[in-house]
Design a protein that fits this description.
Length: 88
């Protein structure tokens, strides 16, 4: 999950103190959707980058809109297993 750099509105700060929490909530929402669609939960990870990995400027409304996004990365299971074995 990703966000723009606009601070969270006061009304939402109890739920999302910072953009980082908001970005994690975005990612978690997508993971739950995929789980409900049948993707095994042990094959997914939700993470948030907050405002720290923009793909566009935060100086325009269009740029901020582009930065409010989720990204889904697919990793080959065999490669993932090899990496996990090499770490242990």
């Amino acid at each position: 999950g990703h966000t723009d750099n606009v601070p969270i509105a006061k009304a939402l700060q109890d739920k999302f103190p910072t953009n980082w929490e908001l970005s994690v909530a975005r990612a978690t929402t997508v993971v739950r959707f995929l789980q409900d669609a049948g993707v095994p939960p042990e094959r997914m990870v939700a993470s948030g980058r907050g405002e720290y990995d923009p793909i566009d400027t935060n100086l325009t409304s269009q740029g901020r809109q582009n930065n409010r996004r989720i990204e889904i990365m697919l990793i080959d299971k065999g490669l993932s297993d090899e990496i996990e074995k090499s770490i242990k």
